[in-house]
Amino acid sequence: MNYIQELNAFYDRLETNPLSSSAIALWHALMSVNNKAGWIEEFAVAASVLCMKSGLKDSMFKKARNELSQKGYIQFKSRGGNQSALYKMTSLWSQYDHTGVHSSVHNGIRNGVHSSVPLLNKTKLNNHNPHHAHTREENPISVYEQEIGRFTDMIRDNMLDWLGGEYFDEPDGIMIAAIREAAVHEKRSWSYVERVLQACLRENVRTVAQFEEKKQAFQARKQQEQAKPKHRHLHVVRNEEPKEKPVVEREPIDLLEMGG
Prior knowledge:
Elements: H1 3-13, H2 21-36, E1 43-45, H3 47-54, H4 58-70, E2 74-77, E3 85-89, H5 122-128, H6 140-147, H7 153-164, H8 171-184, H9 190-202, H10 208-227
Antiparallel strand pairs: 1-3, 2-3
């Protein structure tokens, strides 16, 4: 299961199969737990943990869980005693219509929801960045959790806006490159990742290859500047008679012009 693909399919499915805000919050909580569990087919999690992650009270939690089950988003099985319920997440991406109306996303049409953004496959990404080759397909969320840290709901929403905003031709690749740039410079925060993304917009960097080219060009300029010899300037001091400075009447300083 791929986190980004499932998120995109989830929001697209909401158009025709809407959920209450409580059910949406619970779905995200379950996805977060399953992500940390390594996307296993069936997992157990305590109701108290899901209530904490989703911000729901017990009564609302049960209603939201039943809603997700009845509408085909999850399957769950309660167990007796103090045992936690077992959950299975329905893969929405596998049910996703990759043709027809959803192809409009690739033509630049957004219908007021997070558009579906295809992930770069591992071969394409690794060709651009051989230092970070992996044996499995990467996605920005898992890379963020590995390189930066805790992935909050606010960061998720901001990341989805960047990924679905058609700012880049390779949004997943640029996002991953920005995350790793933050990690390399020990600036492990979402705010720094956004600064890198904003710099990409200013420099019209839209692909991973362009990102790497800009980075290499910057490093080359930096090395050239460091290699330049530093010249010492000798100042000759002459003994001259001090000249009397003329008195000049000055206008009052405008604080607005001075930025005050």
